[in-house]
Write a structure and sequence with these properties.
By secondary structure, this protein is α/β, with parallel strands linked by helices. The protein is 30% helix and 22% strand. The strands form three sheets. Strands 3-4-5 form a three-stranded parallel beta sheet, covered by helices on one side. The longest helix has 13 residues, at 97-109.
């Protein structure tokens, strides 16, 4: 199957490649990705050129600056492709956060969602943990305990 993969050798850091069809274990889930989130300008432009027809690219935040340049033809030529600007405040107005949190809690309770927690610390370490999160020093979640 074709997939967008991380490619450190590519200028875009992404490329389309043939990969083996996934075969999830009983404790794993196979998820069809209908959208992807990206936040780096040059990666966003390259991702738009790789969208499948009717594909959606979800963009939130900016880490390389507020301006992004991309070739609009890449978006149009995909046929029905969409670029969605994710803004949490708009999403909360469209659907209360409590509904999403309730859904997440139910998935965790059912054992269908297992968040990766990389660090647990007392809330008094918030400065150190926040700095490391900002520097992208954790690949999982950070949990602060309030006692």
């Amino acid at each position: 199957m074709r997939a967008v993969v991380v490619d450190p050798e590519s200028e875009a850091r992404l490329s389309v490649a043939e990969v083996e069809e996934p075969d999830p274990a009983p404790s794993e889930a196979l998820v069809r990705v209908a959208a992807v989130s990206l936040n780096r300008g040059e990666v966003l432009g390259n991702a738009l050129s790789m969208l499948a027809p009717e594909g959606t690219c979800v963009s939130f935040g900016t880490s390389s600056g507020p301006e992004v340049t991309f070739d609009a033809r890449d978006l149009y030529l995909a046929g029905g492709a969409k670029l969605y600007g994710f803004i949490i405040f708009h999403e909360v107005q469209a659907q209360p956060a409590s509904q999403g949190l309730a859904r997440l809690a139910k998935l965790i309770e059912e054992g269908r969602l297992k968040p990766r927690i990389e660090v647990e610390a007392p809330w008094t370490d918030v400065g150190t943990v926040a700095a490391r999160l900002t520097d992208r020093g954790y690949t999982g979640k950070a949990v602060l305990h309030v006692s």
